[in-house]
Amino acid sequence: MKRLLRRVLLLFLALVIALQAPFIYRRYEIGQLEKRIEELGRERKENAAAGYREIKGIIHAHTSLGGHSTGRFDELIDAANASGLDFVVMTEHYSQKYDTSALTLNGVYDRTLFIGGQEADTNDGGRYLLIPGGAETPKCGELSSAGFLDKIHSEGKIAINNYPDRSRALNPPFDGMEIYSLHINAKRANPWTAIPDLIWSFNRYPELTFATYFRRNDDYLRRFDTAAAGRRIFLTAGTDAHSNIGFYLFADDQGHRLLGFKIDPYSMVFRLMRMHYLLPEDAATTRENLLKAIKNGNGFVGFDILGDSTGFAFSASNGTAKVIMGEEIALGPGVSFDIRSPLPARFVLFGNGEKIAESESVYEFRTAVDKTGVYRVEAYLDTLGAPFDRTPWIISNPIYVR
Predict the structure, then answer these.
(1) How far is residue 8's CA from residue 12's CA, in Å, rounded to a whole number?
(2) What gap in Å lies between CA 197 and CA 186, rounded to an integer?
(3) Peptide bond into 342 cis (omega under 30)
(4) How many structural domains comprise the chain?
(5) Is 175 a member of any domain?
(6) What is the pLDDT of residues 148-189, one digit of tens each?
(7) What phi, psi does 296 have (nearest 5°)?
(8) Fewer CB within 10 Å, N side or C side of the chain?
(9) Can you tell me the distance from the alpha carbon of 286 to that of 108, in angstroms, rounded to the nearest whole number?
(10) Domain annotation covers residue 331
(11) How many alpha carbons lie under 13 Å from residue 364 in its C-beta half-sphere?
(12) Domain that holds residue 269
């Protein structure tokens, strides 16, 4: 009997080891990915758009205000500064009892500019990032998307559609669309692989473990391209940072936590993906200048954990005028696009949502078009291997050729 029990236990142990072997190997693969990123970084060539200076930060972050988060102000400020962020656009959940946008971070804290916004819901399923927020946001749930957008536009505010697949409204006139969300992407991960990865790899490679689950949001990009074909809008990507997922064996109401870990601290999330904007070289990083750049679409999404995307440039010229991302240019005799990157990348140029040109892995790519349309760029770091040959490193705002 003892011999049989021993055999059963050995068989069970062998089965457990066999089931974990792929994830132990995954840890090794993520370590190799880290080395490839370091090697790629040594090929970096500094680049800057003439006449502009670049700032980087994140859009879509929450704290404990309004619920759904345990994040504290000091935790968020420290993470933003340590991550070298120039700005953070807060998007607090609203409360029926108080104005969360007025109570959240507004102004400059150490090196980082904060702007207080909110998430707003409408009665037709719309959800929008409202920048800046306001005391009347809870009442927006009584309005249709069209009514809400008319109201906030009359107040000079910006609305970003951050769940475009949920709205039942027909072509609501929002200003921009969140074409990627770290939160939505994480929710789509397969728990049967994600949980073992947390056990084996997350402690050693937290950001890169998360990054291996990056996937291009084909649906949201298709929706953006469709909307942009009809009117001028901008795109953003959201961290949707909450700092609220963790496991602790011991914790109390005073915030003391022992024997556990947090999966989504601000300090980690802020290093994964950022929004980069171009300001005129003599413009300071102020609330007004940042909001203008966001509304104009003068920037791009960078999945910076794969490589710092600072220095990416996408411009167009027609012989007499030159414009950058987010701007319009007349077709004239034809338009030439100039795409530059600090790292060698495969560039894909989209026109009206269709792939029209593609490069090898290069630092610079030039191509021309002879048709009006909405043109944007995606850049891929194929040398990092799967899934990054299918998941963009950079997604630009469009240039509108009229």
Answers:
(1) 6
(2) 13
(3) no
(4) 1
(5) yes
(6) 999 999 999 999 999 988 888 878 999 999 999 998 888 888
(7) -80, -15
(8) N
(9) 9
(10) no
(11) 7
(12) 52-305
The residues facing 366 across adjacent strands are 338
Residue 28's pLDDT band (cuts 50, 70, 90): confident
**C-beta pairs of 224-232 under 8 Å, 24+ apart in sequence:** 224/164, 224/177, 224/179, 225/350, 225/352, 225/353, 225/374, 226/353, 227/171, 227/177, 228/374, 228/398, 228/400, 229/352, 229/353, 229/373, 229/374, 230/171, 231/173, 232/297, 232/328, 232/400
Residue 256: is its pLDDT beyond 70? Answer: no
Instruction: Name the nearest CA neighbour of 396 among 352, 356, 358, 339.
Output: 339
Determine the length of the chain: 402
pLDDT at 14 over 70: no
Amino acid at 148: F
176 within 8 A of 168, measured Cβ to Cβ: no
CATH number, position 60: 3.20.20.140
- Name, in order, each residue with C-beta under 8 angstroms of 138's C-beta and a sequence gap of 6 or more: 94, 95, 96
pLDDT at 359: 97
The answer to whether the pTM exceeds 0.85 is yes
Task: Determine, yes or no, domain membership for 285.
Answer: yes
Residues 21 and 200: beta-carbon distance below 8 Å: no
CA distance 164 to 126: 8
The answer to the question of residue 103 being in a domain is yes
Alpha carbons 277 and 272: distance in angstroms, whole number: 17
Angle made by CA atoms 381, 386, 391, in degrees to the nearest 5: 55
DSSP strand pairing (234-241 vs 52-61): parallel
3-state secondary structure of 1: coil
Closest CA to 384 of 211, 179, 205, 195: 211
Cα–Cα distance for residue pair 157/175, rounded to 1 Å: 9
